[in-house]
Amino acid sequence: MKAVKPVLAALSLLCMTTVLSGCATIQARVERGGTFTTAGIAYVDAIPAVLDESFALTVAANSHQLLLSRGDLTEEERAEELGKSNALLHERQQLLQNLRRHSLLLRSYFLALQALTADDNASGINSATEGVVTRLAELRPGIEDKTIGDAKITDLIGPGIKLVVGAYQNAALKQELAARGEAIERELALQQEAINALIDDMTDNAQLIIQIEELNPIFIEYVSAKRVSKTWNDKRLSAFKRTVSMESHDDIRNAAASMHSTWIALVEKRDTEATINLLIEDVERFSAVARLFKSND
Amino acid sequence: MSSPSKIRQETLQTLRGTRRDMSSAKWLFALKKQPKSVRRVAAHARLDVEQAILALSNAKLAAIGKKLAANEADLRTGRDALKVARRRLNRVKTMLGKVSKLLDVVQKVLRFTTTL
Fold first, then answer.
1. Which parts of chain B fold into alpha helices (H)?
2. What angle do CA A147, A149, A154 make, to 5 degrees?
3. Cβ distance A157 to A131 under 8 Å?
4. pLDDT band at B101 (very low <50, low <70, confident <90, very high)
5. Facing B43 at nearest CB: one of A72, A131, A194
6. What is the spatial distance between Cα A140 and Cα A158, in angstroms, rounded to a whole number?
7. Using CA atoms, how far apart are residues A195 and B72, in angstroms rounded to an integer?
8. Would the CA dihedral through A99, A206, A292, A262 be positive or negative?
9. What is the pLDDT of residues A130-176, one digit of tens each?
10. A2 in Cβ contact with A141 (< 8 Å)
């Protein structure tokens, strides 16, 4: 009989270890899900700045084309061309507005997912649990000193509840990923397609603007001016630097691609801390570019 | 055979290249030496290219927007399902609060009976 006790104690310790390590795995997965949604919200929040910048560049490029042609057109022709351009830009504005509205819906989805996986659920429940433990201690003085194996009962009730909450969060997350995994994957793929289309436009429009505003005067000055100004090299260098600064457009593309691939990893349970960290880095760079766009307004 | 979206993309790339060429200093320089009639035709051509770029890129965004709109119902359903799951989780917290209050009552009853 004496030999049975240590065996039972060892078994209970083993069970406890298994339960707690399972708890850690579940909790880590729920936390990664939570981190993904935080990155998702930051990603969606950065999108309006891209839409605004994209529209500003489209209008600027269009204005340059109208101005380059203006001198060779009659007043009637100018009015007609301006009207055509305005109609197309108005249509573009509506399309961007639709993208903005849709992004808000995606944001509300991420917010709901974040609310489910948020830590405050566990901590809120833990404080409620502590309340129960305190009442029990008042009813049965000395319960706080009682132990199972080497662990105090009061220390075990908290993690137990946390495990239940974590398991519930994990089950709800799993259910949601199974039910909507494909729809959200499609959504993020479409968002990526839209971002790529906008970045293609932005890059082309920005290059055109640099060409007209900076490279053309440098060319004309060199070819036809009697004397080239002392600042000619500086202006040339500045034009080259502006071309290089468009590398920030790649940061936007990368964030969109990262959101899409990380979601697939999450659905397929291939997500790791490394993939989530990479996503955070990509989204942070995107947010920095968005802040830069906003500050240029 | 190329898909319509591929043809649209290739046309867009060609038009963008043409717009860049027609806005280059080299082109504008050469155009300056041409008679007014030629410059007028070139001005119209430049704006035709510009408007074609806008129309094609608008069409591309409209196609994506249409697919996004088709996905909206799934997004809404997902959001609502997650809200329900969250409410269920909150109920656990409420239940623990109720247990705590019940224990309070038990404690009071016990105190009352021991003083009797």
1. 4-22, 25-32, 36-115
2. 35
3. no
4. confident
5. A72
6. 18
7. 18
8. positive
9. 666 666 666 666 655 666 566 665 565 555 666 666 777 777 888 88
10. no
Measured between alpha carbons, how far is A259 from A281 in angstroms, rounded to an integer?
11
Q: Mark yes or no for CB contact A132/B71 under 8 Å.
A: no
Q: Tell me A151's DSSP state.
A: E
CA A28, A33, A38 angle in degrees (round to 5)? Answer: 120
How far does the CA of residue A76 sit from the closest CA of chain B (Å)?
13
Length of chain A: 297
What residues in A contact B28, CB-CB < 8 Å? 68, 216
What count of other Cβ atoms lies within 10 Å of the Cβ of residue A5? 9
Instruction: Compute the C-alpha angle A288/A290/A292, nearest 5°.
Output: 70
Q: What is the pTM of this model?
A: 0.79
Q: Degrees (nearest 5) of the Cα angle A262, B84, A263? A: 5
Are A116 and A75 in contact, with CB atoms under 8 Å apart?
no
User: Which of B43, B61, B82 minimises the CB distance to A73?
Assistant: B43
Nearest to A88 among B20, B58, B82 (CB): B58
Helix (H, G, I), strand (E, B) or coil at A148: strand
| Residue A144 DSSP symbol | G
- CB burial class (10 A; 0-12, 13-18, 19+) of residue B55? middle
| Under 8 Å between Cβ of A290 and A256 | no
Q: Write the ipTM.
A: 0.80
CB atoms within 10 A of CB A295: 8
Ranges of each domain in chain B: 4-115
Q: How crowded is residue B89: how many other Cβ atoms within 10 Å of its Cβ?
A: 20
Buried b (16+ CB within 10 A) or exposed e, A207-243: bbbbbbebbbebbebeeeeeeeeeeeeeebeebeebe
Helix (H/G/I), strand (E/B), else coil: A201: helix
Residues of B in contact with A128 (CB under 8 A): 93, 96-97, 100
Which amino acid would we find at residue A38?
T
Nearest to B53 by CA among A293, A196, A202: A202
Q: Give the length of chain B.
A: 116
A188 burial (CB, 10 Å; 0-12 / 13-18 / 19+) is buried
pLDDT digits (tens, 9 = 90+) for A147-157: 656 666 556 55
